[in-house]
Amino acid sequence: MKKKLAVILLIVLVLVAVLGVLRWLGLQQESEKEEADLTYYQSLLDKERDLENIVASRLNQKGLTATASDKSYTRYQVGNLKINEEVSEATIRQYATDIFRILKPYETVRPNEAEVMVAALNNQNQSQLAPIQKTINMHKLALTELLKLSVPKDAQLVHVRLVNSLSQVIPLLENMANIFNNPTLGLESGQEYLKRASSFFWATENINVYFANHNLIFPKEASLNLYFNLD
Fold first, then answer.
1. Of residues 159, 161, 163, the one with CA closest to residue 83
2. CB 44 within 8 A of CB 230
3. Beta bridge partners of 150
4. How far is 197 from 76, CA to CA, in rounded Å?
5. Helix, strand, or coil here: 152?
6. 44-67, pLDDT tens digit by residue?
7. Which tens digit of pLDDT belongs to each residue from 9-42?
8. Do 113 and 172 meet the contact criterion of CB atoms below 8 Å apart?
């Protein structure tokens, strides 16, 4: 099942199981679609729970419980950002342009990483893990670029949350990509990844609100069509 929703400048990642395009940067959704959207998102959550149960079942077969949440990651602070003391329409628009550029690679269709891991393990085919490594590389590049940005002072909190939403899942994805060398940690990380992945969505939603609060209007060409696979 696949569904498209309009999105501007940001991606929606609802726990790793999303195919859609959401309106972003102040573009309002039609009120008559709200009920349908709620039903749609509930179906995504149901799918995520099913996948989480599959991973948990594999752990239970080994008599294990997930502990990957203890896996350390770099937690960035506002002090790690390059803060621009000037808050003006020009600096905010430049910030939006930079965010657009950094998030554009997420336009590309990519599979559900947890499903990829489970399928590779079931098939005993390590080459099937390649999409996970591709996601790791994409997240690392985006993280590096986000840390280079000149961030308007009043956007520092929402920006650092976006940075950390990527930072916290990269180690989990690396463990998932290494599942054939450490199956236990890979499965644990897959289960934790399902819980943490939605933080990227909420972080981008915060930036969406930031731009809306500044009453910025962006041209149609400043939109991204970002897809996530539900199948």
1. 159
2. yes
3. 82
4. 17
5. strand
6. 445 444 555 555 555 555 554 445
7. 333 333 333 333 333 333 334 444 444 444 544 4
8. no
84 neighbors 152 (Cβ within 8 angstroms): yes
Neighbouring residues of 7: CB distance < 8 A, sequence distance ≥ 6 = 20, 21, 22, 23, 24, 223, 224, 225, 226
* Residue 22 zone, left/alpha/beta (φ > 0; ψ -120 to 50; rest): beta
Q: Identity (one letter) of the amino acid at 155?
A: A
Contact residues for 123 (Cβ-Cβ < 8 A; gap 6+):
none
156 in the Ramachandran plot: left (φ > 0), alpha (ψ -120 to 50) or beta? alpha
- The answer to whether the beta carbons of residues 132 and 159 sit under 8 Å apart is no
Distance of alpha carbon 191 from alpha carbon 118, whole angstroms: 11
**What CA–CA distances, in Å, run from 15 to 18, 112, 178, 179?**
8, 9, 21, 20
pTM, whole model, 2 decimals? Answer: 0.69
Helix H or strand E segment including 147 = helix 130-148
Burial of 9 (0-12, 13-18, 19+ CB in 10 A): buried
Distance CA 100, CA 104 (A): 6
CA distance 207 to 220: 18
Q: What is the rounded distance in angstroms from the CA atom of residue 27 to the CA atom of residue 223?
A: 10
Domain positions in the chain are: 31-222
Six token digits for residue 230: 């539900």
